[in-house]
Every structure is written in C-alpha cells, then in structure tokens.
Amino acid sequence: MNKPLSVLFLCTHNSARSILAEALLARLGKGRFTAYSAGSSPRDSGKPNPLTVQVLEEAGFATADLRSKSWDEFILPGAPVIDVVITVCGAAEETCPVFPGHPATAHWGFEDPSAGDASDAVKLAAFRATLLQISQRMELLVSLPDASLERLVLEQTVRNLAAH
Questions:
Q1: Is position 123 within any domain?
Q2: Structural domain tally of the chain?
Q3: What are phi and psi of 140, to 5 degrees?
Q4: Does the annotation count 89 as an active-site position?
Q5: Has residue 91 got a pLDDT over 80?
Q6: Cβ(92)–Cβ(12) under 8 Å?
Q7: DSSP label at residue 44
Q8: Residue 161 falls within a domain, yes or no?
C-alpha cells in the first residue's frame, strides 16, 4: 500500500461503538490505517458518551480529540477520501449516504453498551466488553497482509471479518 487506508466507522449517535473503533484503529493501525468515526444523529454536545471516554482512558487511550460528529462532514468538498466504511451498530437500519469515491462497505454489528436502564456499573461492564469485542476484530483487520487490502478484494475482506 502506498498510502494509509482510510476507514470510517459509522453508528447512529457516534458516541460509543464507532468512537471505540476509531480509537482502536488509530492505535493499532501503525501507520497503515487512518481512522475516523461519525453518525447520522451525533450527540448535541459533540462529546462521546462519558463511559466511552472512561473505558478508553482506563485502557491508556488519549481521548481529548475524540468527538461525536455527523457523517455529513465526510461528504463535503475537502473531506478526507474514505476507502472503507464500516457500520458498527447492532443492526444497520439506516441508509448511509453515498460517500465520494465509492468506498468498500461492511457491517460489523455490536450491541449498544449504552442501551437500556441498567445501572452505571452494569453499563460500564458492557462498555468494557464492547471495547474488547471491537479490539479483537480490529486485531484481525490490522494483521491482514497488504494484498488483502487492495481495492478489488477489500470489500469482501472487511465483510468476512464480521464473522469473527
């Protein structure tokens, strides 16, 4: 690969799963990947879910630059060129916009750790479990040889990782 592969993780509110995925790929990608995240209805505050921030900080991630943002930022002129779009919602029920360059797409479903009326302790455990699940998938992605990331095989490659 001549340039890092740009990956955009999408989830409705861009406050938990997609932020976790962005942070993980940014760390694990080792210069081979550039990670972004966004959502269709980002949080009004622009801040990720506080439990997202907590579990990332517990794992040693810097969180100051993470923010909840609209996927509209990635279809505007001057937006980064995206090579892969991966939805991380439990069920991808929304129609995503058409991103410039027609990136490869895949769905990696993860349950929403913030869903329901559970106590903060239960939700925190769910966030930690989600971080681990996404981390395992991300380890598979970053370990792929460059040939698996070439444009013609990229979409099938990232879709196959959903089975892990």
A1: yes
A2: 1
A3: -65, -45
A4: yes
A5: no
A6: no
A7: T
A8: no
Residue 140 CA to chain centroid, in angstroms?
14
Q: What is the DSSP track for 78-106?
A: TPPPPSEEEE-SSS--SPPPPPTT--EEE
Is residue 142 flagged as an active site residue?
Answer: no
Q: Catalytic site residue 87?
A: no
Domain that holds residue 57: 5-154
3-state secondary structure at position 46: coil
Is 164 a member of any domain? no
Give the predicted TM-score (pTM) of the model. Answer: 0.91
In a domain, 159, yes or no: no
Q: What is the pLDDT of residues 112-128, one digit of tens each?
A: 999 889 999 999 999 99
Annotated active-site residue in 5, 8, 10, 11? 11
Q: Which one from 25, 26, 84, 89 is the annotated catalytic residue?
A: 89
Given the residues 96, 125, 142, 153, select the one marked as catalytic. 96
> What residues are paired with 8 via a beta bridge?
36, 85
Give me the CATH number covering residue 128.
3.40.50.2300
Task: Note whether 58 and 25 are within 8 A (CB).
Answer: no
DSSP state letters, 103-133: -EEEE-----TT-SS--HHHHHHHHHHHHHH
